[in-house]
Structures are given as C-alpha cells and as structure tokens.
Amino acid sequence: MPEKELVIKQTDIAKRVKELGAAITEDYEHGQLLVVGILNGAFMLMADLVRNIKLEMEIDFVRVTSYGMGTTSGTLRFTKDIELDVQGKDILLVDDIIDTGRTMALLKQSFENRGAHSVHFCALIDKKERREVGVAVDYVGFEIKKGFLVGYGLDCREQHRHYPEIYHLKDVYDV
Ligand code: IMP
Ligand code: MG
Fold it and tell me: What class does CATH assign to 11-144?
C-alpha cells in the first residue's frame, strides 16, 4: 500500500461540516431545498452535512460518468439519475472534491435545463488551482493546493473511501 500522510483530522472535518450546515441553513431558509449527492464520493459528506442543515429538505443522489472531459464540451451520462422532481427546486449539489470543475459545470447545466429554480455547489475539498471551467463553489470545506487525497469518501481506484479522516496518498501521482 502506498505511504499516506494525514492532511485533515476527523475533528476538523466535523467542525467544518457543522459550519457549512449552519451557512446552508441560513441561506435556504425560504427555499425549496433538494440536496443532491454525487455518488460515490459524496456518501460520507452527505450523511454528515444533512444532519447539520436544520431545514426541511429532500435528498437524492446521482451517479455520472463523463465523456470528452478533455475538451470544453464534455457530456455527462447518468448511470443513476435522481428520482425526485427538479422543477422549481433549489438544488444543492454535493461532492467530495472539486478539481477541474467539469463535472459540476455539466451537472449545473443539466439541472437548469430541467427547470431547477437555483443550482449551487458544496464540496468538502476545493482544488482551486486545478480549475478549468468557471464554476464557483458556494460552500467549501477546505482549500487544498495539490496532491492526491483519499478518505472520507475520496478514493484511489475505489479503495480508501472509508477512512474517517483525509490523507495525502504519496507516490500515486501528484496533481
Ligand atoms: P472534476 O472537478 O470534474 O475534475 O472532477 C472531480 C472528481 O475527480 C471528483 O469527484 C473525484 O472523483 C475525482 N478527484 C479529483 N481529485 C481527486 C483526489 O485528490 N482524490 C480522489 N479523487 C479525486
Ligand atoms: Mg468522485
């Protein structure tokens, strides 16, 4: 197993997720909130985040694969779409990490096309320096400059997702 170095402690994640939940609670007080987790990476953040949002809400999940992500016109294929109605809803898309931003940008377009009232983003980690498309992440847990991270939902070839904290995985590849 590659060497790994602790980057974000469990207690720091819990504290930050609580703060994100409080900010979302304030911002969506008058909305029709539908929180959409992007599988698989968002599963742990979703469970912790929604328990810190003190509002009525609906919860659903998508799973997507993307084609042509090296180009500006990538397209998404939903291997699992949400099952709830999107029309008029205030969508909060939740992912573990936002990297190039392409997945989030395409998802935003998809939900807007289906009549969402608003679409915003929440990610535990923002790798801002790697952003390729202009998406603003409204709720960010932590900004990390570089390195490949695992744990708290983040994987490397489907391994390591279950750790309660986040690690930098060394010698995999550094991005
Ligand atoms: P992007 O923002 O469209 O480039 O895609 C972000 C996705 O890339 C995330 O949902 C992760 O699945 C994956 N990803 C990016 N950076 C990392 C990392 O450091 N560790 C694990 N997965 C990552
Ligand atoms: Mg992912």
Answer: alpha beta
Judge whether 95 and 121 are in contact, CB under 8 Å: yes
Query: Quick check: 31 pLDDT over 60?
Result: yes
34 lines ligand 1 (CB under 6 A): no
Q: How far is CA 168 from the centre of its chain?
A: 18
Ramachandran area for residue 108 (φ above 0: left; ψ -120 to 50: alpha; else beta): alpha
Q: Which of 67-71, 135-139, 165-169 shows the lowest mean pLDDT across its residues?
A: 67-71
Closest protein CA for atom 16 of ligand 1: 99
Domain parsing of the chain, residue ranges: 11-144
Residues annotated as part of the active site: 99
Tens of pLDDT, residues 95-143: 999 988 989 999 999 999 999 999 999 999 999 888 878 888 999 999 9
Cα(68)–Cα(62) distance, integer angstroms: 19
Residue-wise burial string across 137-151, b where 16 or more C-beta atoms lie within 10 A, e elsewhere: bbbbbbebeebbbbb
Query: Where would I find the H helices in the chain?
Result: 10-27, 43-50, 102-113
